[in-house]
């Protein structure tokens, strides 16, 4: 199953448009504000459907939820390639949000259910980090394939169309998942594989599937996330970090586009290139290298956390690293050094891949197996809600800075520096906040 989990991550990240999403939308004559608004629409729609789809997955079947997710992705990618009008692009983003809502939290819950059924829970950080590393390798390969598509076709719409193909293969992969990836309270499917492992049947048999049961599962997951003080604080910290990252990460693309103007990429390769071709090559190379580094970071996240007395101290160290990275971005903005700005963005992306497996592992310490997908959907909902607010406001601030005659052209990215430094300083040095009172796994085990 480790192979199938890794294959899922690899195929999921064959989103050939992702390294060029902001450039593709700018090519459709959208401003940073309208792009931010599109992202906000996607996040709000995901937010509305997030927790109910998590409860759906825990009740009716996680594999069915993942298949529905990938069908929605296929439709969204085709529409994003076809349309240029804002209203139609917003509709495509709504379809994309359906895919995100069914997927987020669900697959992580599937991994942890399989680990529990196979008595491998003590390896969760290492296994989740390993499978996540393959998703980053998928991003690296996808960036290179995307560059090839753009260099051949000279059109951004093809990177959207071709992204639908790996999603179809992903559906085939889910047909190989055994029944033990489901919630213990999910009745066995008559259509999908049962597999080599399974949960013990609940006392009194499986409860009949009903709307009331879905609502009950939904309520239990929400209540657990809110009532448990330590889990609530941990979710707040994670949501803030991930929302900050999601709202800022795509600005790396126009930054690399600006850097490509000054870099003789074609001369280095011995060929003549247009500005667009230089941008495509530079973006692809940077994203491929970034993805390989992120893959290594994910795979070693378990070893990274073991260097510290507990996981809370490990996350504090990541806040410090991100603080330094945004300081580098700030220096680049002040001096107009686009490569310094890009370096800071790349560093934050790498550290996010140390962060994610560690935080998911910590969250799993507090969420029971029956409501795991729902709790992770609550986490993802909070992240999407905050991103929906951050993205358009950040885009509006960047647009406003771009219209001001202040400093050099890189100053337009100043709002990103303010946001990044502010969030990192708050969580790094607010030492008495609840997010820093989360105890280590060893302490939890001692309590038990």
TrEMBL record:
The transmembrane residues are 71-98, 134-152, 158-177, 254-273, 279-297, 318-351, 410-429
Q: Give the domain of life.
A: Bacteria
Q: Which InterPro entries match?
A: MFS (IPR011701), MFS_DHA3_Transporter (IPR053160), MFS_trans_sf (IPR036259)
What one GO molecular function would you report for this record? transmembrane transporter activity
Keyword Transmembrane included in the entry's annotation: yes
Keywords, alphabetical: Membrane, Transmembrane, Transmembrane helix
Q: What is this protein called?
A: Major Facilitator Superfamily protein
């Amino acid at each position: 199953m480790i192979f199938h989990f890794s294959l899922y991550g690899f195929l999921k990240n064959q989103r050939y448009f992702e390294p060029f999403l902001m450039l593709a939308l700018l090519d459709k004559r959208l401003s940073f504000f309208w792009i931010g608004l599109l992202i906000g629409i996607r996040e709000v729609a995901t937010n509305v459907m997030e927790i109910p789809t998590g409860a759906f997955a825990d009740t009716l079947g996680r594999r069915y939820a993942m298949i529905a997710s990938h069908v929605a992705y296929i439709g969204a990618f085709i529409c994003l390639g076809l349309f240029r009008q804002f209203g139609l692009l917003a509709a495509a983003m709504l379809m994309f949000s359906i895919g995100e809502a069914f997927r987020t939290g669900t697959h992580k819950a599937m991994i942890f259910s399989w680990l529990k059924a196979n008595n491998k829970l003590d390896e969760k950080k290492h296994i989740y980090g390993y499978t996540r590393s393959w998703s980053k390798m998928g991003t690296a390969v996808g960036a290179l394939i995307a560059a090839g598509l753009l260099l051949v076709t000279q059109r951004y719409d093809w990177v959207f169309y071709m992204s639908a193909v790996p999603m179809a293969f992903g559906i085939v992969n889910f047909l190989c998942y055994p029944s033990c990836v489901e919630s213990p309270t999910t009745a066995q499917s008559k259509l999908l594989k049962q597999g080599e492992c399974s949960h013990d049947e609940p006392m009194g048999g499986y409860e009949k599937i009903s709307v009331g049961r879905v609502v009950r599962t939904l309520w239990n997951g929400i209540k657990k996330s809110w009532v448990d003080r330590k889990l609530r604080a941990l979710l707040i910290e994670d949501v803030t970090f991930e929302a900050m990252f999601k709202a800022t990460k795509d600005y790396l693309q126009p930054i690399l586009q600006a850097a490509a103007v000054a870099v003789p990429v074609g001369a280095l390769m011995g060929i003549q290139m247009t500005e667009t071709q230089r941008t495509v090559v530079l973006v692809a190379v940077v994203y491929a290298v970034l993805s390989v580094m992120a893959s290594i970071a994910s795979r070693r996240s378990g070893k990274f956390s073991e260097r510290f007395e507990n996981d809370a101290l490990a996350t504090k160290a990541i806040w410090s690293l991100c603080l330094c990275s945004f300081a580098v971005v700030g220096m680049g903005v002040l001096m107009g050094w686009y490569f310094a700005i890009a370096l800071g963005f790349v560093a934050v992306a790498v550290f996010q891949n140390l962060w994610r497996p560690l935080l998911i592992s910590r969250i799993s310490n507090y969420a029971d197996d029956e409501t795991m997908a729902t709790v992770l959907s609550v986490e993802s909902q909070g992240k999407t809600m905050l991103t929906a607010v951050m993205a358009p406001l950040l885009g509006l601030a960047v647009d406003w800075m771009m219209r001001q005659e202040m400093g050099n052209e890189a100053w337009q990215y100043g709002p990103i520096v303010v946001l990044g430094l502010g969030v990192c300083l708050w969580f790094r040095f607010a030492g008495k906040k609840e997010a820093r009172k989360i105890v280590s796994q060893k302490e939890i085990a001692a309590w038990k």
